[in-house]
Design a protein that fits this description.
Helix content is 31%, strand content 25%. The protein is built from seven helices and 13 strands. The protein has helices at residues 30-40, 73-81, 90-102, 162-167, 177-198, 208-212, 237-248; strands at residues 2-7, 11-16, 19-24, 45-50, 53-55, 58-61, 71-72, 84-89, 106-112, 116-122, 124-125, 202-206, 228-231.
């Protein structure tokens, strides 16, 4: 039996024993969560789409989630329970799912949820040296009076993300006209950066904030990029991408 988890900064979505559930991730210890499920069900494999930096089974860090830094979750469950764990960054999972859905080998995802992140496919996943490619939310944008979970005060996601809404005590970007303008400018900037640096054929926008809030998308893209903008049509793309990566044995391609 497989336990599949999409572990985000606001929610945990999981599939087990034929059911799909969503619960708030706040105050949930992911290790304890998995161990509780192991005690209830004959789980042999765990797959995790993780909203943080992950490399070769190690949860390096997660600015929006309280997890032990550099924790090797793969090794932990293999040694204690004999259970295989496959873990991948959620935006990389989403990029794979969107690539399959749009039948496109040159695609980028820009998802705005608790944070803002990106994933890239150019025939295969673009990973970077430590599997950290795509940390869009932490590129310098503008200084704020707030501090990001990564320790900086000028991260893009301090202006454009669910976190940005939360720290300003807003429920929706339209609650404050000035913030709405800042948010839209930051989102358009993110799209422009991804378009120019990666030159994808399609950029797919998704995530909870995109789905549930009205945002104005009008990036000033140079005409040489010729990029198409799409809104995600997949329910929980990170989960769907996770399933494909586990089935495809994608972990092997990284080494």
């Amino acid at each position: 039996m497989k336990l599949l988890i999409d572990y985000g900064g606001t929610y945990i979505r999981y599939e087990l024993n034929g059911s799909y559930k969503k619960i708030e991730s706040k105050n949930i210890n992911i290790v304890q969560f998995i161990e509780d499920k192991i005690k209830q069900f004959p789980i042999k494999t765990v797959g995790i789409s993780f909203a943080g930096q992950v490399d070769d089974g190690i949860m390096r860090s997660a600015p929006n989630i309280a997890v032990p830094k550099n924790f090797n979750i793969k090794k932990y469950f293999k040694e204690l329970y004999g259970i295989d764990v496959f873990i991948e960054n959620d935006l990389k999972c989403a990029a794979v799912a969107e690539s399959i859905y749009f039948k496109c080998n040159y695609i980028a995802t820009v998802y705005v949820g608790t944070g803002i992140g990106a994933g890239f496919v150019e025939k295969k996943l673009i990973r970077g040296y430590k599997n950290l490619a795509g940390e869009l939310g932490h590129i310098p944008y503008k200084e704020t009076r707030f501090t990001c979970g990564c320790g900086k005060n000028n991260c893009l996601e301090l202006t454009c993300s669910g976190k940005a809404l939360s720290i300003r005590n807003l429920k929706n970007i339209s609650d404050d006209e000035n913030f709405r303008l800042e948010f839209n400018n930051a989102l358009n900037y993110a799209i422009e950066v991804v378009s120019i640096l990666l030159n994808p054929k399609i950029i797919v926008l998704g995530g909870g904030v995109i789905e549930h809030n009205r945002v104005k998308i009008e990036p000033k893209l140079p005409n040489f990029t010729d990029v198409e903008l799409e809104i995600s049509r997949i329910k929980d793309a990170p989960m769907e991408g996770l399933k494909f990566l586990m089935k495809d044995g994608a972990e092997d391609e990284r080494r």
